[in-house]
Amino acid sequence: MSIKLAVLGLLLERNMHPYEITLVMKDRRMDKIMKLQMGSLYYAVDKMSQDGLIEAVEVISSKDRPDKTIYSITDKGKNIFEQLILQQIKKNEPVFHPLYIPLALSRYVDQGKLAELLNERVLKAEHDVNLAYQIYEEHIPLVPRSVLHVMYGRYEHCLTELKWLKRLYADVLANKLSDTGTPLDTEA
Amino acid sequence: MSIKLAVLGLLLERNMHPYEITLVMKDRRMDKIMKLQMGSLYYAVDKMSQDGLIEAVEVISSKDRPDKTIYSITDKGKNIFEQLILQQIKKNEPVFHPLYIPLALSRYVDQGKLAELLNERVLKAEHDVNLAYQIYEEHIPLVPRSVLHVMYGRYEHCLTELKWLKRLYADVLANKLSDTGTPLDTEA
DNA sequence: GCCACCCTATTCAAATTTGAATATAATAAC
DNA sequence: GTTATTATATTCAAATTTGAATAGGGTGGC
Lengths: 188, 188
What we know:
- Chain A is mainly α.
- Chain A has two domains: 2-90, Arc Repressor Mutant, subunit A, CATH 1.10.10; 100-173.
- Helix content of chain A is 60%, strand content 7%.
- Chain A has seven helices and two strands.
- The first copy, chain A, has helices at residues 2-11, 18-27, 38-50, 75-91, 100-104, 111-139, 145-173; strands spanning 54-60, 68-73.
- In chain A, strands 1-2 form a two-stranded antiparallel ribbon.
- In chain A, β1 (54-60) and β2 (68-73) form a beta hairpin.
- In chain A, α6 (111-139) runs antiparallel to α7.
- Chain A is elongated.
- Chain A starts with a helix and ends in a 15-residue tail after the last helix.
- The model of chain A has no long low-confidence stretch (mean pLDDT 95).
- Chains A and B meet through α1, α4, α5, α6 and α7 of A and α1, α4, α5, α6 and α7 of B.
- Chain A binds a DNA duplex through residues 17-20, 22-23, 35, 37-40, 42-44, 47, 64-69.
């Protein structure tokens, strides 16, 4: 879904060929916010083209490279774009953190190895928090507030994750994952 | 991936047939933590059976219902289970919030409709926060700390999301999403 | 007693995602 | 100067996910 929205949103600004869309997305850090895979993008473009949300307006051939097909958003596409955004906000689809299940089952694995990996994750998470904040700050003069909200939201989500991982790491070091009956130390 | 881990983790406790696995997962609220779809589960079970991680140990037929095939985890499955958990923790796969892209593009849509939907989301988020906390508290005497960490983590993630949505909602009401150059009001 | 809905248990086709393959040019590294 | 990596642009087969179809039995409401 995000991929369709991103394509429509960018084609709203100007006509592009699919590869060019990926370049713009990377330039705007959209690839940090959603999964961007070439195969999926080309699929989405084909699909939307069949469905009349976008249309090919030009094909540029050159001897050495594959043809570039330039797409433009249609009126139908513009309507669907708005609908999709609202629908997606209404939908309330849950966020499943990819660590929930592994961690819930983590008491079954070697606690030494687990501790080592969690330590690495904590370090990465610290890095991510700083990076996310920096990206937010740098973009204050550059982008509309709608985008700032996403950047600051990402910072806060990263910060929450960091606190979570640290608390968990402490428990692994103390070898407490299998304990029952006591609440977590949630003040730190 | 989560689905495989969940199946292996449960088969570690006792042999079950696929449908039974879904019942246990729901009973333990695992379906709140990962996407649980029958089709995917049956696919994963087939795949793991082919790969020798689990094996069919019994088929129970009855006249009125489809046959139940009961699976058991193999030694290979036990090894892979540990590997998968550690691998998944190491992998550091990013979390893409399904609202990031829609919200980043939200300045293009009708701000009245947007405000209404965001208000609904804020209400739902408040409900989710309370529910998540309640689930954590209720389970303190019941489950190992590894599981509590996941439950409390979910509570904190929900809380972070709530704050994020509220801030965004205020900006939509003030019709500021397209403004540029001022930092967000991040103290509230 | 009947209607509507939920439970049991699995399968399937169709949609979508993934990851690699393709082929050439430009740039960087040593 | 040669080698390795990165950038250009797209396609494809294979893996996986999705959502609906199947089909009989139980249960609650009126």
